Amino acid sequence: MQKLKKSLKQLKFRNLKRYFTKRNIIFSLAIILFLGMYIQVQSVFGTFDLLEGKDTSLITEIGQIKDSYIKIGQDLNDARMYLGMQTTDYSSLEADIDDEEKNEDELQMAMFQYLESLVSDKAVKEKLSFNKSLLTNLAGSKKFSTFLSGNKLMLMPLIQDDEAHILNVHTNKHDGLATFYLSKDDGVLIFKTINEKKKKTYDSFEEFEDELIKFLKKNVENLLADGQELLKKKKQIGEAIKLPETQTALKQLGFKLNPLYKDSDLKYTYSVYNKSGELIGEIVLHTDTRAIWLVDTKNSLATIQATDLKSALPPFLKKLDYQNSTQKKVADVMENLKNSINDGGFQLLLKQGKMSMSSKPREDNQRYYFDLYEGKKHISSIVVEKSTGVVNIVKPDGTNAENLLFFDPILKKKTLDIPDSVPDYGNEISKNEGVLNILVTGKQGMNVDTMILAHLDDKRRSISMVSIPRDLMYNGRKINSLAYYYGMPELKKAVTKISGYNVDKYILIDMYAFIDVVDLIGGVDIHLTAPLVDPSYKVVDNGIASTLHYDEGDHHLGGVQALRVARSRKTTSDFSRAERQQEILAAIQDKARNFGFGDADTIYQIVKTVLNKTETDISLDEALAFFFRYQNYDIDSMSVMHSANVLFVPPYVTTENCAAMLASAAAAGEPKPDCEGQNHAYTLLPRDNNWNLIKWFFKEHFEENK
Fold first, then answer.
1. Which CATH topology does 435-648 take?
2. Who's near 259: CB < 8 A, 6+ residues apart?
3. How confident is the model at residue 97, as a pLDDT?
4. For residue 647, what are the β-bridge partners?
5. How confident is the model over 377-394, as pLDDT tens digits?
6. Those residues with Cβ within 8 angstroms of residue 706's Cβ, 6 or more apart along the chain or in another chain
7. Which value, in Å, is the radius of gyration of the alpha carbons in the chain?
8. What share of the chain is helix, strand, coil (3-state, %, to 5)?
């Protein structure tokens, strides 16, 4: 019997041992893990149910719990895979929520945006009207007038400037004791004293008047005391400015210190200007702390707080940068040229050509000269114009100036057969039917540096383009400056006169809009006839910095790459850049051929993107109509006006040379030479100053083969 019991016990142990294999243990643990996670997920779902019934302020908490749920779900999927069970996409909850919240109906969104704009404008007008009535009523209130008289206070009449309506409480000695500024832009009412500035809102005039009276009763004594202290500080500044030491420093440096201050943002600011009228420093009196700071606007590290202004002001002025922007440019250019000449690679190139160039320039009143020699023969000079900082290449006698940055050996080989006699077109302006002329201009910052006149001909179903260089002198100034000083309509008139073609429309586009347009159409394909390398243009692609470079041949460019190619000119010229810009426009037009009415949404986005970043007299409806009308026209002519065809660079004449020419002509009884006020920077003019030559050039390219 004892043996039988022992035998049964051994059998149970063997059976139990056979069950607790490695595989069975892992399987059991997986089941337990699965059940545990299942319970956790159910708990999370219960939390979701609880939160759904609560306020939307719990959205953040829901998001955190949702993230935990997804992580748990991922772990649960691992267990499911081990057990051979089907997995579940726990991230679908997030997608469902996003899809429910996102409205992709652009038309509906635009309707809401339009209505929201109208509602906002109405609210601003109502706020402005109400707040203005507060100020107006205060000026006519007997209650407030009586209060002012009893406290020896006065109220200035309501005044206004371009930005705000202004009402000021003051005394005989203190202006701006308490001031209200009512912004015309947003209708916001701002209350300002010597010590504070804050936005104010009121429900009624009575509330406005009572609060102001209460504030003045409580604070008038402190405000008067603070105002007295502020007067002392202003007097200190005035005395420091009048000091002989200060006036001597200003005179020696050619600075101008405006004794009238500007009141803004709890600060009284006195401005210091250099000879060129550039702001270089400030004396700033903070009205709330009464602290005086001497501010170097070009070097924040040199800004100091002045405890003794009379002793601090003269040395501070002497430390300000007296150089104007041109002088700095000249200094930077000189340093750059000296470093370039001393560069080992440059010296090696000189040695190969058996040439020499000194990094120590000679100079006259107008230029610095870096002379280039082949043996003892003076070949040319690289000169820096002192008046502009422009770097030119000149002949040994200083004539025939050519901008170094625009030097293009390839361009010099391009020629154009110009007739011996060019017709006199007079003031003739071509206005042919079935023709649209659009002036396409590009800018970076405030400078217009791309000008292309596009000639669209319905009869030939063709597009011709001519690029106009920005350095073309017209009526005594560079033509691109017309847009900056007088606006695009004036540039449009000027191009009409010099081209002989009526400019119907214009568009001034920020060059960076190219990025969005090119990306929207899926990039463009262009062909480079020569390698493009620009060592001054550093680019970063995929985290790797390098010099901008493209090999000769075909390239597919995205938006950023297209902008780089369009903008680069350091190792080519403005003329070569203009050619590349025309090719990019042609590539965009070539892509446009593939768009049909079925691509209306994409077309609309392209046109909207362009117009949002432009100044133009083309409406959205016109732009869409032009797109479908001209998208399949062929570009049959692309050309650039430059110094290798109809233009030339006016010679440089020094002051000394001009004086000698004038004296020689006077002694010989010859006509007075036209050398006074001659060009000292890189500019372009039509050959022989014949503006008919430019009109002939446009006719050659716009009406060829008609």
1. Aminopeptidase (3.40.630)
2. 238, 241, 270
3. 37
4. 686
5. 999 999 998 877 888 888
6. 460
7. 38
8. 45, 25, 30
